[in-house]
Amino acid sequence: MSVTIYAPASMGNVGVGFDLLGGALAPIDGSLLGDRVTVEAAEHGLTLDVIGHWANKLPANSAENIVYQCAVFFLEHLGKNVGLRLTLEKNLPVGSGLGSSASSVVAALMALNEYFDQPFSEQALLKLMGDFEGSISGSVHYDNVAPCFLGGMQLMLDTPQVICEPIPTFKQWYWVVSYPGISLSTARMRQLMPEQYSKQTAIDFGRYLSAFVHACYKQDAVLAVSVLKDVLAEPYRAAEIPQYQAAKSALADIGMLTSGISGSGPTLFTITDDINTAKAAKQWLDDHYIDKALGFSHICQIDELGARRA
């Protein structure tokens, strides 16, 4: 028996919802922007093969790879000691702001859960994903693993009953995402943010996020764009991303509705409801924002499917 799971790239924060909002991404050209993990039987022990465009950026020692660690973690929770062979197809760059580690974690844990006939419920598996991802990043936050696993745009509730819930999306929006080709440490980017914020900033954060969610339910795209502002992270992270401010200004001139940082960067996202404007933005980003040897840009919409068999 063999199980292969594809887990899409994701935007954490979506600008306005630091640690509380995330969206899964699907390139409109049909290409898969995300990692794949295959689980199959082995006589004994755990083995891991790593393939894919970004495989050479991962540790050579399998025991240091998070997919291998996911298998150890899963088997401990399952109470089993069996032989498994895992294959990771690494299609997302590490430290990109596209949920690279979340994609590997989600693909691995979902593949393992499917291989063993779903011993964990959806919510229990999501909690395992969040706990494991938190052990990597230093704190548990679901804004990448939840949309990557479940698809759509997810609002983190983190109550005893439910971790997250989907919110309506704007089907007419195109999300152009552009990875410049450099890696930024999530932990380092979190350290740039202050330990405390002013009362006004706290009020603005709550107002913008609640208004954005309200606009999603009303399907009021104009309102949604007007409040899609990041007052917590972007003011402190933007300077760390080369050419980000220049790109944001140029994209506004092209006619994009708004732009922001995907996750902790350096990938940026920019939104429009016009495909020709999206194509113009992608071309500008390809010409001015990315390292052509290492970076990439995609015109995406929200991936409603999330992780699935591949």
From TrEMBL:
Signal peptide: none annotated. Pathway: Amino-acid biosynthesis; L-threonine biosynthesis; L-threonine from L-aspartate: step 4/5. It catalyses: L-homoserine + ATP = O-phospho-L-homoserine + ADP + H(+). Residues 65-152 form the GHMP kinase N-terminal domain. It comes from the Bacteria. One of its GO terms (molecular function) is homoserine kinase activity. Residues 234-289 form the GHMP kinase C-terminal domain. InterPro entries: GHMP_kinase_C_dom, GHMP_kinase_C_sf, GHMP_kinase_N_dom, GHMP_knse_ATP-bd_CS, Homoserine_kinase, Ribosomal_Su5_D2-typ_SF, Ribsml_uS5_D2-typ_fold_subgr. Gene3D superfamilies: 3.30.230.10, GHMP kinase, C-terminal domain. It is an enzyme of class 2 (transferase). It is found in: Cytoplasm. ATP binds at residues 93-103. Keywords: Amino-acid biosynthesis, ATP-binding, Cytoplasm, Kinase, Nucleotide-binding, Threonine biosynthesis, Transferase. Its EC number is 2.7.1.39. PANTHER family: HOMOSERINE KINASE, HOMOSERINE/4-DIPHOSPHOCYTIDYL-2-C-METHYL-D-ERYTHRITOL KINASE. Catalyzes the ATP-dependent phosphorylation of L-homoserine to L-homoserine phosphate. Belongs to the GHMP kinase family. Homoserine kinase subfamily. This is Homoserine kinase. It comes from Shewanella youngdeokensis. The lineage of its organism: Bacteria, Pseudomonadati, Pseudomonadota, Gammaproteobacteria, Alteromonadales. The gene is thrB.
